[in-house]
Amino acid sequence: DTAVSQTPKYLVTQMGNDKSIKCEQNLGHDTMYWYKQDSKKFLKIMFSYNNKELIINETVPNRFSPKSPDKAHLNLHINSLELGDSAVYFCASSLRARADTQYFGPGTRLTVL
Amino acid sequence: QKEVEQDPGPLSVPEGAIVSLNCTYSNSAFQYFMWYRQYSRKGPELLMYTYSSGNKEDGRFTAQVDKSSKYISLFIRDSQPSDSATYLCAMTTDSWGKLQFGAGTQVVVTP
Prior knowledge:
The complex is a heterodimer.
Chain A: E1 4-7, E2 10-13, E3 19-25, E4 31-37, E5 43-50, E6 53-57, E7 64-70, E8 73-78, E9 87-94, E10 103-104, E11 108-112
Parallel strand pairs in A: 2-11
Antiparallel strand pairs in A: 1-3, 3-8, 4-5, 4-9, 5-6, 7-8, 9-10, 9-11
Chain B: E1 4-6, E2 11-14, E3 19-25, E4 32-38, E5 45-51, E6 54-58, E7 61-66, E8 71-76, E9 85-92, E10 100-101, E11 105-110
Parallel strand pairs in B: 2-11
Antiparallel strand pairs in B: 1-3, 3-8, 4-5, 4-9, 6-7, 7-8, 9-10, 9-11
C-alpha cells in the first residue's frame, strides 16, 4: 500500500525525445508537487497543483508540462529532452498544501544521453 | 548566494555519538522549518517540523531554530548505522508555501 508512487522508476532516453512520468497518491491529499533533484542533491520545486489547479509554477522551461487529471494523479510531460534534464524527479503530495504533511514518492531517475 | 546554505559533508561519526547538523538562511521571512531524511535512491521523508524559534524533541532527534541568527540545527543522539543518510533542511514563509531546501548533508555512522 504505497502512499505516493511514480512510474517509471528509471528512464533512459536520447536527446530530443519526449517522455512522461506518472505519479499517483492514495493518501487522500488534495495538493501534489513535482520536484527536481540535481546531481548535487539540491531539491527544487517545479510545480504544485491543488485540487487540479496549478498553484506553483516555478521558472521551468516550457518543455515541461504538468497535468493533473484528478486530485490523486499528477503527471509530468517533458518535450525535446536535453542533457541538462538528467536528474531525479520526485512527486510529493500534501493535505491542504501544508508543508508539514508533504510525502514524497520514490523518485524517477531520468538520464538523457 | 543560495537562500538556504547547508554543508554537504560527508559527516562521519562513530556509532553512539551525537550527530550535529545545521543550516543557515538569508530570508528573515522564513517561519516554518523542516528536516528531512533521505536514504540513498529513496525519496525524502519528513523527520521534524518546527514553527518559529525554539526547540523540539522527538525521540533521539532534537531540532533547534534561532531566527535571530538565521540558523537551524538538528541533533541526533545515540546515532545508529541506520541513521546513515542525507539530511535535508527545508523552510518556508507560510505553512502552505513552497519549500526551499538546503543541499543536504551526508551522514555516515560507522559501527
